[in-house]
Amino acid sequence: MKALIGNALDARGLKSNIAVLIEKNKIHEVIPRDRLKDYDVDEVFGGDGYLIIPGLINAHTHVAMTKFRGLGDDMALDRWLNEVIWPMEKEWTGEEVYKWALIGIAEAIANGSTTINDHYFFAEEIAKAAQKLGVRAFIGQTMMDLVDMPIAEPEKGFKFFKKWSGKDELVTATLAPHATDTCSKDLLNDVEELSEKKDALVHIHVSQSREEVKRVKEREGLLPVEYLKEAELLNERLIGVHGVYLTEREVGLYAKSGATLVHCPISLAKLEGSIAPIISLWEKGANIALGNDCAVSNNAMDMILEMKFAAILNKVKTENPTKATAKDVFYWTTLGGARALRLNTGLVEKGYLADLVLINAKKLHFLPETNFLSHLVYSARGSDVEKVFVNGELIYNEGYFLKLKMSIEDFYAL
């Protein structure tokens, strides 16, 4: 049995000076620290000045796009995709995707992510990279049929889903149509049919650019969310991403559907200069999760940084400093992501999966020790992460990836 010692923080509050006991892959007990002597514990981690939090969930990412970091900065989304990203992606090889997926996932883990939800090409290579590092991963092969992109042929996505469904305890296959403007009604109908049959999650970009909204309206006579509703995809299995240009009607439809909207505040502020109507969705009852999008548009795989931007940018969007509280954004990054992915994670409580992060809070920016939730969201950095546990196993320890047997410095030689 393992024990993590420190102050435990989750979206329900702070538990001071406790020990989190891990048995196999679950939290066995959360006890006062002075009771630790009553248990047979093999390994103890943390101590005074440490913060134990649920593993952060990156609910929308493209980990292999880490290769393109620093390219296409300061461009609008449509130009960015058509002139920079898609031309380079057409030259991708599986070997390159595997290498850069390793690097992207490693960066995510080192910054406190225990779960990623990835949407990309060469999904099998990304799944293999996830296995190597020991992260919990939801992975879908990007599919589109209205754009000439051979690596995104729909059959590849369906093939990956069928091959990887149930194959690995930590890797879950999803269905990943690209976006409402790049996928035909026939393709979305095929996705919906398989999703319903297999109870599979569907991961899709929705209303991420003005051009997307325009194309869907011209082609279908519908707004993006209306298009998803017509395709019968607007339900609790749907994980829609961005939603920057949702109308009031779409917000209402989405909030009633049970679907999750993944908010990627840094990416879309950078690419579109806009923020989704997240607070309106949230206040109408929609489930919200948080994602980083990718290291090209972000430009980091750091969900601690993402929380800070989610809080601040939504205050700007609503012109209301009381919105998007630290508690809200921490919820989105833990319990919101867990609900979207149907995971028993997100709380430091008995019976939950032991996906946990140990943060070294013995730093100047954690002083005074008065409000750890505020400090985590507004002051902390990804570099404060010291140890990461997934499924009860220590996978990252002070710059070293245990399953891969590599340090951060070793990645420079890949």
TrEMBL record:
Pfam families attached to this UniProt entry: Amidohydro_1
Highest taxon in the source lineage: Archaea
Gene3D superfamilies attached to this UniProt entry: Metal-dependent hydrolases, Urease, subunit C, domain 1
InterPro entries, per the entry: Amidohydro-rel, Metal-dep_hydrolase_composite, Metal_Hydrolase, MTA/SAH_deaminase
Molecular-function GO term, any one: hydrolase activity, acting on carbon-nitrogen (but not peptide) bonds, in cyclic amidines
Coiled coil (residue ranges): none
Keyword terms of this UniProt record: Hydrolase, Metal-binding, Zinc
Domain annotation Amidohydrolase-related: ranges: 52-394
SUPFAM superfamilies in the cross-refs: Composite domain of metallo-dependent hydrolases, Metallo-dependent hydrolases
Protein name in UniProt: Amidohydrolase
Organism: Palaeococcus pacificus DY20341
